[in-house]
Design brief:
The chain has 478 residues and is an alpha/beta fold. The protein has 15 helices and 12 strands. Helix 14 links the parallel strand 9 and strand 10. Helix 6 runs parallel beside helix 9. The longest helix is centred in the middle third of the chain and has 25 residues. The protein binds 2-(hydroxymethyl)phenyl 6-O-phosphono-beta-D-glucopyranoside (P53).
């Protein structure tokens, strides 16, 4: 096994899927608080106000807000030395455009960060994980208004300064590359939800505005990287990309080219800007041709150049096949699209399980950027069964993770500089894609149903002790 000493092992979460306490301590509404529950067949809806009879999973989530001490203790029992979490922006700036932060919100994170450190974990903090204060959505249409850049910077400055001696690892935006599709526009960019009502299903009628908002968010991200380095030169600040690894379905050159374009435009573009500090020519040409190239203010090119990231982090769950053949089979229920790979099996949610694809991806990224990397999400969503005796036998999850850890090891042996691994959802939490509870990733089972009912009691799954052993042996004992 090749993992370096001090390799970071842990788990990853996001405030809106995990915390709950949505109206505690003066917290303002975030865009995530207006997304309804759903399931693999029922898409989540966004409602412009809170409907009385409707279930919104983020409000309670799994109530980490009231369980944090015991939950963090459990992570400590598995010997985590890193814990990825996001700060809920609207807990700190309830409307988003205040000049002074909400002290009670900050105190909540003071407690959490101290508990993590006491339990042996270094925090890895995402500043915006699929959410933005609703105040900024309503008043400014989110990042489509340039003024929101300064509000994001003020928020980042507040928390980076407060935690400068406690937190070293920061990510500016989660899976920002969703902004290139008609998907991330609401959750990450905070564009006016009315647009989503008019243009459902990610149609691209407002593509030009969306790419302007994405540009503004890229400028905001770069400003915060620079600012973070001024606050503490030891900070390690990363991009976070949803790495949908893709293969051409056939050796037909038209499929090869189609896959290349998908990979560049969706998977690589945002990371290219954040790592290299400028727009790649393939995207500039593509956007100009479609008249969607964003307006650059005079200082933007210099800001992007000055704010390049220290590390490349990404989520890796699956791979997809790309082809021009529209009749090719899809995998069931995969909200990502992409075609089925005859050599791979899929999860119940249509995500194709591909450990070798992780070795391939790490090599590809090492070759492209040469930066230290972290796999900050990976895991298997599964409808686990809680047996009457209180056990959960999740051998399938152990298998999935074992194979992906072997795949990371193979990449490290081939020269990849890998800093750590935070698997997704060490404790069961709300699914981002479907809003349901049934799609579980954790080592810790949470007794809760899709409609939010349940005791919220925590149970250790079989994988709990397995992961502990993996960490204790630094990835040797799998
Ligand atoms: P869920 C789609 C494809 C890949 C990653 O996803 C994705 C998504 C969004 O559904 O998001 C990341 O919960 C995201 C997490 C999310 C996790 O993957 O849909 O950063 O917030 O929970 C898993 O199964």
């Amino acid at each position: 096994m090749a993992f370096k000493t001090g390799f970071l092992w842990g788990g990853a979460t996001a405030a809106n899927q995990f915390e709950g306490g949505y109206n505690k301590d003066g917290r303002g509404l975030s865009v995530a608080d207006l997304k309804t529950g759903g399931d693999v067949n029922t898409p989540r809806r966004f409602t412009s106000t809170i409907e009385k009879e409707t279930y919104y999973p983020s409000h309670q989530a799994i109530d980490f807000y009231d369980h944090h001490k015991a939950d963090i203790d459990l992570f400590g029992q598995m010997n985590f030395n890193v814990f990825r979490m996001s700060i809920s922006w609207s807990r700190i700036f309830p409307q988003g455009d205040e000049l002074v932060p909400n002290e009670a919100g900050l105190q909540f994170y003071d407690t959490i960060i101290d508990e993590l450190i006491e339990n042996g974990m270094t925090p890895l903090i995402t500043l915006s994980h699929f959410e933005i204060p609703m105040g900024l959505v309503e008043k400014y249409s989110g990042f489509s208004d340039r003024r929101v850049i300064d509000m994001y910077v003020r928020y980042a400055q507040t928390v980076m300064t407060r935690y400068k001696d406690k937190v070293t690892y920061w990510l500016t935006f989660n899976e920002m590359n969703f902004g290139t599709m008609g998907r991330g526009e609401l959750t990450t960019l905070g564009m006016n939800p009315k647009d989503e009502a008019i243009y459902p299903n990610g149609q691209t009628e407002n593509e030009k505005v969306r790419f302007q908002a994405l540009h503004n968010a890229l400028v905001a991200s770069a400003k915060v990287v620079k600012l973070g380095h001024d606050i503490n030169p030891d900070f390690k600040i990363g991009c976070m990309i949803c790495h949908i690894t893709s293969y051409p379905l056939t050796p037909n050159p038209v499929d090869i080219l189609e896959q290349k374009e998908f990979d560049l435009r969706f998977t690589k573009f945002v990371g290219d800007v954040q790592v290299r500090g400028e727009y790649p020519s393939y995207m500039t040409a593509y956007l100009k041709k479609k008249d969607s190239f964003p307006v650059f203010e005079a200082e933007d090119a210099a800001i992007l150049k000055a704010g390049t990231v220290d590390m490349y982090t990404f989520s890796y769950y699956m791979s997809v096949c790309i082809t021009l053949d529209e009749t090719a089979a899809e995998t069931n229920g995969n909200l990502m699209g992409g075609k089925a790979n005859p050599y791979l099996e899929s999860s119940e949610w249509g995500w194709q399980i591909d450990p070798i694809g992780l070795t391939y991806t790490l090599l590809d990224l090492q070759d492209r950027y040469g930066l230290p990397m972290m796999v900050v999400e990976n895991g298997l969503g599964f409808a686990d069964e809680l047996r009457p005796d209180g056990t959960i036998i999740d051998d399938y999850r152990i298998d999935y993770m074992r194979q992906h850890i072997v795949a990371m090891d193979a990449a490290v042996e081939k020269g990849v500089d890998l800093l750590g691994y935070t698997m997704w959802g060490p404790i069961d939490l709300i699914s981002a894609g479907t809003g349901e509870m049934k799609k579980r990733y954790g080592f810790i089972y949470v007794d809760m149903n899709n409609d939010g009912t349940g005791s919220l009691k925590r149970y250790k799954k079989k994988s709990f002790d397995w992961y502990k052993q993996v960490i204790t042996s630094n990835g040797r004992d799998l």
